[in-house]
Every structure is written in structure tokens, then in C-alpha cells.
Records
---
Amino acid sequence: MLTLFVYGTLKRGYRNHQAFCRGFVEFREATVRGRLYEGPGYPILKVPEADILAQGTTDPLADAATQARLSNGVQARLQQPPEGTTGETWDTVYGELFTFEDPQTCLPPIDHLEGFRPGSRCLYQRVLVPASVEGARQLAWVYVVEKLGISRRRITSGRWPE
């Protein structure tokens, strides 16, 4: 099993959901800490460095195993979000959690869509972060940017589209 947090065109009812996320076995609304920015027809997410627990790889089964291993080992840490060490404030970003039973089939097409290519230059990184679901916290993979590049409008509501 692998859990993925989506906040843009992969959400239910948006243009990429049907083609890429129809193989999910569980869906829940969720939030993560971060900052959401308007991209050219899609949102861009930045998360606090302190929230990143693992980096995604080209091996979906290894990433699912990493998620399971870290989820079991950090339950106490997941109860409270980490405090920012630089005094930065972060927004609540709203999205959806999809759990996939077969990450080896479902994840590579989504990685390709997001332009995620470990070891190469790419817009998005797939990282493992704590997500909040109905008051509880759990780990989920999410696509984020390291650097915004050009100036983007921040979506302070944390919801795309605004």
C-alpha cells in the first residue's frame, strides 16, 4: 500500500484524476503544512524542510516499504506538527489522500505526469510528509518544489482552485 496526498489536477473531479488515480482503494480528505502557489493551470506546493521524512525513488515498492517503516516508527512524532526553526509561518494546504494497493502499477504514470525523475533535473520532487486526516496524522507522499523559480501568486487559502 502507498498513500499519496494530491492538491491539484489529480483531485477527484479535475482533469488528471480519472486517467491517473482511478486505481485507488481508499480516499480521504486531508491537509498538509505548506505554501500553495498558482502555477500555469495547476498549483505548486512548497513544504517545510522539517516535515520531509524521506525522498521518493524510482522504485515504488521501496517507497511503499519506506512509508510503512517510517509510519510505524514515528507515530509519536506525528501527533504534533514540528515547529519551524526559522520562525516562518506555514499555511494549511487542503487536498485528498489516495491509498493505492499496487504502487508499482499506479505510481510510475503519476511520477511521469509530475515530471518526477530522481537523479535528473525536474520541477517536482516526491517526498514523504505528515498529513492530517480527521484529527489524526499519517505519512503520505506528495509532489513538491524545492525552488519556485519565478515569482508566483501565493494561494493563502490553501485550496486550489481558489
---
Amino acid sequence: MRGLAAIAFALLLIACGGRETTDDQGLHQDVQNSTNGAEVTFDATVLNDPVQSGDHERFEVKTTTGETLEIDHNTNLAQAVPIHKGDGVVIHGQLYIDPGPHYGVHCTHAHTSSGCPSPGWIEYNNNYYE
């Protein structure tokens, strides 16, 4: 019975627009520990205007804890974000680590798949792009 109550509460939270809260220190720890695939939610400042590359818009952000990350936002699955250099955003997605190491976040869209099992989003100017 408790399991059903927990599921009902989670569905209610989603229906009411509940979102993950930012955890900037959690992102920092995931980067420090190279936790590839971690689900992250964090505040950041946009470092450059987005560039369309195939079906993704790519841009870099600087987090409040000092990391620079590339954001790969799939515009086939989510609306493009009308951001510019210097704008503040909140991002929820999946951390990835490429050789180098090069850190980034993808899965910033509500459509899920085997590669992106959790819905993501980008909040800008009180709007969600998912």
C-alpha cells in the first residue's frame, strides 16, 4: 500500500509541475568523481550563443562552482532555447564525459529513450524548454 501512495505522490508532483531542485554542489561532486551518466540539475551562465550542429544546438556554460560544460540540446526532441551569451539558465540532464576529459550535459529533453532514461529540460526566463 505504501508503494502505491509513493507512486500517487510522485504523479501528483509531476502533474503540479514539480521539478528537480538545483544541486550545484552535487554536480561539482559528480564532475570531481567523473560520474559519467549522473542525472544533474544546476545553475549556470551561458558562455556563447548556441550553434546548431545537425539536430542539436550546442553551447557552453559556466556553473556556479566553476566548471565549464558543453550543453548538447536535441532540437529534434525539444524546442530551441532562445538564449545568448551572459544569460542565466537552470539545466537538468545527464552528465557525460568524453576523452580529454571533456564534460558536458545532454538528455535535456522530455522525450526519453534507452540513452536518455530520465526526462530533462532547460529553464530560461521562467520558461521550460523540454
---
Amino acid sequence: MKHKKADIKLYNVLFPFWMLLLFPQAWLIVLPGNFIVDSLVLLISMFVLKISYKKQWYKRYILKIFGFGMLSDVVGAVYMLILITVFEVGRMGDEFYLTFPALFISAALIFVFNYFITFKKTNKLLRLKMSLIFAIFTAPYTFLIPSSWLY
């Protein structure tokens, strides 16, 4: 009996990661979109938490928040890529048990990067609140969209 290796179709991996590789022009939408979301979350959280010197805070933190957010999203996407290409587990984007861990990994990294690097010079309570806010509100929830909806 001859074992045939399963065909791996990369379009089954959720679109944000692969769309960026297959269609580089998509970065023109994704990067500004993520920057806008990060900016809105930062501005709203500064307002809710009654942080003074909003302009200085924004200038000081937005690039780190944005960069670490993108890095965290890429790590989650790489996790899904490894599962499909190396371990040949499921059709990525269609199984919650595979995409949710990627979402969780990204959210956890967003928290860790912001808590230990971005906001490290703020007091612990504010650092905790800001890190949690970004982990919850800027996690890549698009990982949970089934890729079968896209084709």
C-alpha cells in the first residue's frame, strides 16, 4: 500500500497572513488599519483611565504598541502555518480548536510585550490595565473567521 502525502493548499490558512504574502499590496490596507485600531484603543483607554498628557503618551507609546501588536499577530499566524505545513493538522481557519490557540498566543504576547516593555516605566496598576486592554481589544480576532468563507 502506497502512502500519498496529503496536498497542502495554502489558501486554507486564514487570509490575514497568507493574503499578505500572496498579495503584498494588502499591506497597504492592513498596516494603516492596525495602526488606526491601535490608535483608537490607546486614545479611548487614555480617556477612560483619565491619563493626563495624552499627546505625550500617544507619541511615546503608539509605535511600540503597533510594532509589538504586528509581531504578536505574525507569531500567531506562524503557529497556524506550522500546524498545517509541518504537522498537517486540519484545515486552518475552519477548526476553532486550531485557530483559538493562535488567537490566544497573539493576545498573550500583546500583553507580555506591552506589560514588560512598552509600559514598563508606568506604575504597575496602570501598566496592568493598559496591557490587558490591548491584549483584549487588539487581538487578531480575524483568525477565527473560517477560511472557507473566503473562497
---
Amino acid sequence: MTRATVLQEVRQMQFEEISERRQRQTMTMAVVGAMVGVTERGY
């Protein structure tokens, strides 16, 4: 198993955990965005 494969699997697990927590409504979308590196943007 290569390093890239391992890192991708870790990212996938982190994303799934964040997604589950959001579905349970324990986190706001702003917090989710910050955790995955996406920020709010005004137009």
C-alpha cells in the first residue's frame, strides 16, 4: 500500500466522520467548511 493510498483513505475516513456529525446536526456548515478547507464567500 503506497503512502498516497493511505493518505487518501485517511482523508475519506475524516470526511465520513464530518459528514455524519453534520447529519446529526452537531456542527454548523461554517464549521464543516473550515474543517475541510472551504470558506464562506460573499458575492
